[in-house]
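subagent[fold] <- orchestrator: predict structure for attached chain, return tokens only, no commentary.
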Amino acid sequence: MKKNTNVDIIDVAIKAGVSPATVSRSFNHPDKVLMSTRKRIEKAISQTGYIRNRAAQAIQGKRSGTVGLIVPTLDNAIFSNLIQAFSVEMRKHGFTMLVTTNGYDLNDEYTLLRSLLEHRVEGVALIGHDHSDETYNLLDIRNVPVVSMWNYKENSKISCVGGENKEAGAEIAKHITELGHTKIAVAFPNVKENDRARDRKIGVIEYLNKKGIIIPEYWNIKTEYSVSDARNCAIKLLDNYNHPTAIIAGNDVIARGMIYAAQSRGLNVPNDISITGIGDFSSSESSFPSITTVRMRPNEVGKKAASVLLERINGDREADPTRIRVSVEVKARESTKLINN
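subagent[fold] -> orchestrator:
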């Protein structure tokens, strides 16, 4: 189906049943427009995919030379290597990058996407596949070149490059059980709007269940992607319940918080308790103890995702999604050890 990327303010006005001046006023002076009218205009904007051209003063027809990247957070090292690799590859081809964060809020992500498109970015990179219907709809209506990074999905709506996070979860669970652990806790963030964490946790739980290992609710730790929050959550577990022999954390940031908690309670990692992460961040190998984790290859993901987005920008935007699966690999280090049951 032919996409309409030339929707203007007149189209919005006709759809909303108001004048173009009223549409303009709703953008610039919303307090001077009735709420009921604003709602009609907002609905018309959503239905038409209209984007304000804030770069209208630029020479007509000139490409912006920019791409947008929306990540959940810039805190810690979760996405730093990924962003760096993606940015370097885009710069090689003359593109600069606008980066923004949604704080794991999919409603904010939609607002940020609109803002990036208002600045006439030529393509957009997102993280994972959990996005609102409004976001997917806007990408489709505007026919935006887009790629998802960090999570491979064989039936993704948009092009994607990443590891299979469910496999990553299963692999780290397999590693822990092969070390003899059966008393295992897990530590993950809220997975409701985070497909990467959700797939990892599903992979862990399904593998453990196949081995006949059931995780008690009090060993199911819920934490933010924060060293301090992970530490506090783990301390509550260690102070109030018998401690497990192993903890599988949703990523290396959480794993580090778990290690600090264990150490603060006089436990030796890994002699008293083994702790793993997922992600293999740049500091995980050099920390003490070094963290057993799953390598997700962010540099490879970022570079390949940039290539996919460039192909979309310069080629056929109507082509089927490109899906590239990047292998994952367990990296056994000092934070885990074999035990004798």
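orchestrator: received. Logging for downstream: The CA atoms of residues 16 and 39 lie 9 Å apart. The two ends are 62 Å apart (CA to CA).
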